[in-house]
Amino acid sequence: MVHEVGSFEAKTRLAELLRLAERGDEIVVLRRGIRVAVIVGSSRYDELVRPAQKDWRQSMREHLASGPRIGRAEFDDIMRESKEGRS
Description:
Helix content: 55-70%
Strand order of the largest sheet: 1-2-3
Order of helices and strands: EHHEEHH
CATH class: Alpha Beta
């Protein structure tokens, strides 16, 4: 269930709103009628955030796997040139 509350009401009823969020409800906090925040429970937060983190990591793995492979000697040359360029 979604609840809408003003910012002053949210401050006054914070403990109650946190219980509702923990139960699975979503609390939309409004300031002068404009949505400024949403309070959700930690399990809902995890549902919203973790897929994005997982997708980012998977995308990075795929990107790295598709890149060119270099040998140890070539890697050493790149590192040496990099260090020499900083001096």
